[in-house]
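Hi team,

As requested, here is the filled-out complex form for the 7,8-diamino-nonanoic acid run. I kept the field names the same as last time so the parser does not choke. Let me know if anything looks off before we queue the next batch.

— J.
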Amino acid sequence: MKQSFFIAGTDTGVGKTLVSTALLRLFNQQGYATIGLKPVAAGCEMTPEGLRNDDALQLQKAASVELDYDLVNPVALAQPIAPHLAAGFKMLSAERIAAFCRGAMLHDANIYIIEGAGGWRVPLNRRETMADLPRLLDIPVILVVGMKLGCLNHALLTAESIRRDGLQLAGWVAVETDASMLALDENIRSLQERIPAPFLGHIPYMDVPSADVAAASLKVDYLSGG
Ligand SMILES: Nc1ncnc2c1ncn2[C@@H]1O[C@H](COP(=O)(O)OP(=O)(O)OP(=O)(O)O)[C@@H](O)[C@H]1O
Ligand SMILES: C[C@H](N)[C@H](N)CCCCCC(=O)O
Ligand SMILES: [Mg+2]
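And here is what came back:
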């Protein structure tokens, strides 16, 4: 089996990295070889080895196939702001980012998890957005919904855009990032009734977020054809 997924979110900070690492752990447990990529990361620390982003390090660690950091995160931008702004005078190009991903994907694995940056329509340059990456790679999308007031609108607009952009929505995940959200179950049900894609699970609020605990909340049979 060889399958790739682009992990999109309703926004930044909604749990994309938690879901990405949870999916990697889950597929590892099922005996699949996995690779996690964060092609564009805005918000990096300078280290003796160069710029390092926490999401990319988590994906690198959760994957079963060892890859050099530069393959996991080819575009590392220092400032934690929108990628096209963090890039400054260096122009980001969706085709170049896709080419980096294709290079990393020459490394053999069964599952490739590619985490986006921010939400679906985050700009890469004047013309292109993050959405152009899964389009160029021609891979299905998993939508991560951060459960908070306002997420119904964000989730439905994003699911609609993914389909209008001609991409397949392979499934969606509800992440409880706000422990005090009112009517959580009713909100999840409202999305189940309206998002035309499989519901892969609800990751509960955790005082100390753990990819393994999150993995236990996900059902990926729909994804791996099992
Ligand atoms: N279920 C949860 N319970 C508690 N905290 C959570 C949960 N899911 C995510 N978080 C926390 O919310 C924050 C944002 O999550 P995460 O980093 O996965 O978001 P993201 O969508 O990947 O953001 P970015 O756009 O920066 O990549 C993190 O501090 C994470 O630990
Ligand atoms: C810095 C942050 N954690 C992400 N990497 C980038 C989020 C960009 C969001 C841009 C926006 O939609 O306004
Ligand atoms: Mg992230």
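Two things worth flagging: The two ends are 11 Å apart (CA to CA). The pocket of magnesium ion (ligand 3) is lined by residues 16-17, 55, 115 (CB under 6 Å).

Thanks,
J.
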